[in-house]
Amino acid sequence: MIFQTLTLQNFGPYGGQHRLNLRPDTVGNTNRPIVLIGGLNGGGKTTLMDALRLVLYGQRAQCSTRGNLAYADFLNQCRNRHAEAEPTLLELVLEHTLNNAPLPTEFRIRRQWGPLQKNGRDTLEVYQDGQLAEDLIKGWDERIEALLPLGISNLFLFDGEQVAELAEQDELPPGVVQAMRSLLGLELPERLDADLDVLMTRKRKQLAQEKDLQKIEAIEAQLNQLTEQKGSAKQVLASLTNKKEWAEHELQQAQDKFLAEGGKIAAEQAQLEAKRAHLATDLDHQQSQLRDLAAGALPLALIEPLLATAQTQAHDEVRHR
Description:
Helix content is 57%, strand content 16%. With 321 residues, it is an alpha+beta fold. The protein has 2 domains: 1-148, P-loop containing nucleotide triphosphate hydrolases (Rossmann fold, 3-Layer(aba) Sandwich); 220-321, no CATH class. Strand 1 (2-11) and strand 2 (14-21) form a beta hairpin.
């Protein structure tokens, strides 16, 4: 699949109509298959990527400025503010070789919308070799998913910041992995297995007698119910797994913080233990001095006040007599 041209009309900062030539260039014998778009911040580079995603995937497009906006509100936001009543148009022309044909097929995808009401939508037109293809319009989501799955579109339609973000991740997001499996055909055996189950079920129904049909239908209903319960259980398990990972992350942070603060506490404890040992030594020294005093003249010093009191009392008694 090779992009040829991209046309923008009244889209974002691009007022009026603009057409970009995206066809890979060839100079002499040298191929130049990579298209680089450069410009200052706010120059509209990301808007071009959003235009490519929007024209290809419509409501499913993962555009940079959409956020949680509803599709109709996002389309209104994408309109050039000077467009007034003029329509907004995105058109992408690409070539793709179908079934090993000698010549590639040209596809022209066009999305157009005007000032939208609350529940408004865009108009999709798909042309194959210049002819309007109604079947492609109805099944465009399935066709583009087979050509360029949405999950891996960021690997082809990206800016420098997205390259850095993907490069820093240890593991690819599950959506990207699933899209790559689909693109490479790795999930084909699973699809064949499911199709075989459906075919065998239909064959059993044809061969079964009427009395067995009710039993089979009841079993199938029970199987569908269990399948739905299994899907719900998987969703709950995924949610609990995310919560578990988050809890483990918080636990690790708490442990790291505890260890970091515990080192400070351990250092303070060592200082306090040293101070306590010093005070205990000083206490022993003071007690030893007190014992030495008690063993010497200290008891006599305690008797002196008693003798002075007795002497005073004796003088009083003599005086009284």
